[in-house]
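Hello Y.,

Per our agreement to keep a running log of every chain we model this quarter, I'm adding this entry. I've kept the format consistent with earlier entries: sequence first, then predicted structure.
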Amino acid sequence: MSAPHPAVLDYPLAAPPAPGTTLVVAPSVHWLRMPLPFALDHINLWLLEEDDGFTLIDCGYGDAPTRALWETHFATTMRGRPLVRIIATHFHPDHLGNALWLSERFGCPVTMTMTEFLTAHAVIDERAAHGPLDTCALFRAHGMSAEDLEALAARGNRYRQGVPGAPPSVQRMLPGDEVSAGHGAWQVIAGYGHSPEHASLFDAARNVLVSGDMLLPKISTNVSVGASDPDADSLGRFLDSLTAFEILRPDALVLPSHGLPFRGIPFRVGQLRAHHDARLAELVEAIAAARTPVSAAQMVPILFRRPLDLQQQFFAMGEAIAHLNYLWRRGRVRRTLADDGTLRFAV
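Predicted structure for the entry above:
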């Protein structure tokens, strides 16, 4: 008999570990939390006990406060035992930021998907349309104001602030691979749309999923379009990726990168699908009500009904383009090139 589907999310742990401490969430699996220097103010990391040290899943943002906390964990949590492997779920700075620093300190390998590894280097080096000026060109084409574009360009390469350097090589993992770590076998589950080839990890024996950013309990992960693939159906890829999680046991313990561990995968996936369906319907309604074709920049307030700082505008623009590309690719809206050179959408 299969386990019942929870009608709400179940949170078995009421609070996160205090800074510099950990909580055991499953056999040989420790939860630690690190700070982030922006609105999403934390990331959860997972330390797996090995016979000869620890495997670490995700690394935290590559800045001084995070590294100071790591020094505390080296002395207390790890008690002088080494990291023997680092696994990165994807290339974003809160996940990969300290991978090079930690791997050099302990002489241990980094494991991640090849697409995420190459993307990290492309962003650091600003190659293949992965630089801030490329992003500005994409957002200009979708109607972002000159003032906001100037502010975005002035920030420079913010990625390098959180990832001062990326590992020069990695041990590659592929979707469907089985990774041995923490006295268990973890199946690699690929996710798309949030990042190029995100890797979540599921241990069937412990019924534990390290979901990374693919499944978060309170917020919908950012799904964006980038300059290297401007016509991408990122939202479609993300929604398709959720199917792989729906077939897992509904009572699996989910260890997310942000928020509290939870149970109730089918319920949460249903919430995410409903959320994006609602946003898409609102966009179609707003576009239909407009007298002239609209840009993605004009649709940002439809998707985000709150003031946004520059960092949030960056994510909001990418997400607006992703939702509009989804509608365009399915024939629910038309896309045209206006006389001013911006892309416009109409019903």
